[in-house]
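Changelog-adjacent note: as of this version, every example in the card shows the full chain rather than a window. The one below runs 198 residues end to end.
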Amino acid sequence: MLDILFSNPLSFFILISCLIFSITIHEFAHAWAAYKLGDSTPKYQGRVTLNPLSHIDPIGLLLLVLAGFGWGRPVEYDLYSLKHPKRDVLLISLAGPLSNFIIAFCFLIIGKFIGFNTVISQLVTLNLVLGVFNLLPIHPLDGFKVVTGLLPYNLAYRWQDLENYGIYILLVFIFTDAFKYTVLPIVSVILSFMNFLI
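Full-length structure tokens:
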């Protein structure tokens, strides 16, 4: 991403702005879902807001610029405040990626009506990538908790044993061609489907 900064500062600014917007909505969706499901922790921590400063992790953003991979501030929630912990964690985890798919679809519609420009195209692509990537069943991504929520209790406990290996699997996934051959083809399929719906 640094190469874009030096070669085309305007494109870099647009890309970073789109990323901050998308990450903010993603983390807000987690916080809002947790709050609506009965946990006040995100509200007390100031996460039920669309203020980017509440959701952007400075180190995560810096690494995003330097290495092309980063993260937002994870939303904390209290399992004991949720009425149906297993189901509710599934819903909270799905809320973030789902928000990215909704953003992508909305801007795709806008692009169809007013024409596509750099900002709209970036928002569609980035949000589809964020949505698909976060649904990968690898800890600490949202997909890991989604699988936990879908599995029966006995299998869910076994699945959670893989949590300690998640970061290593994720690093291998990111810094190899695995990303290119899994996430990007799925993004293309979803984009084609969305275009078909409009």
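Structural remarks: The chain has a mean pLDDT of 93.
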